[in-house]
Amino acid sequence: MARMQITRGMRLPEAKNYVAGKLGVSVLDLCDSGVMYEVRGQLGLGRFYDSESTYPAEPLAMEAKFRIAELLEVPINCVGRFRTLTGLAG
User: Fold this and answer.
1) Residue 79 vs residue 3, higher pLDDT
2) 53: pLDDT strictly greater than 60
3) CA 8 to CA 12: how far, in whole Å?
4) Predicted TM-score (pTM) of this structure
5) 58 exposed, middle or buried (CB, 10 Å; 0-12, 13-18, 19+)?
6) Which of 5, 14, 35, 65 is 20 to 30 A away from residue 85, measured at CA?
7) Smallest Cα–Cα separation from 24: which of 44, 39, 12, 2?
8) Could you tell me the residue range of the domain that residue 18 belongs to?
C-alpha cells in the first residue's frame, strides 16, 4: 500500500481499495494470509513463507516484483534498475 500512497498520492483507504480491486479480492482479504497466499499463486506474484521453498514453476523474487509492478501499474525501483542494467529498458 505504501507504494500506492507514494507514487499515486493516495490515502491509505484509497490505496487499499485500488490494490484489492487489481487483485480481485476484498479489502479484508488483503489482511488474510491464507487468501493472499492463494491469490499470489494464482496471479504469479510469488508465494513467500520462511518455512518453505517456492514451487519449481512459480516466480522467484525478481520475477514476482516485475509482475507486481505490471499488475498494479506502479514503478518499482529495482525493476527499473534491472531493466536498465540488462538492456531490457524499453
Assistant:
1) 79
2) no
3) 11
4) 0.62
5) middle
6) 5
7) 39
8) 2-86
Grid coordinates 487483485 are at which residue? 23
Instruction: Answer whether 66's CB lies under 8 Å from 73's CB.
Output: no
Using CA atoms, how far apart are residues 57 and 17, in angstroms rounded to an integer?
30
Q: What is the mean pLDDT of the chain?
A: 83
Q: What is the pLDDT of residues 21-52, one digit of tens each?
A: 999 999 999 999 889 989 988 998 877 664 55
Phi–psi pair at 29, nearest 5 degrees: -65, -25
Overall average pLDDT of the 60-81 stretch: 88
The three grid cell numbers given for residue 17, joined into one nine-digit string = 481499495
Q: How far apart are CA 83 and CA 1, in angstroms?
A: 23
Say how many domains are in the chain.
Answer: 1
User: Cell numbers at residue 88, please?
Assistant: 531490457
State the chain's maximal CA–CA distance in angstroms.
40
**3-class state of residue 32 by DSSP:** coil
